[in-house]
Amino acid sequence: MKLAVIAFAASFLLLGCSEQANVTTDNGKTYDWSSMHGKTVVVNYFAEWCAPCLRELPELNEFHHQKPDNVELIGVSFDPMSNEDLAALKEKHGIEFPLVLTQPAPAFPFERPNMLPATYVIRSDGSVDGPLMGEQTLGSLKNAVGAE
Question: Where in this chain does the record put each Thioredoxin domain (predicted)?
Answer without folding.
Answer: 12-148
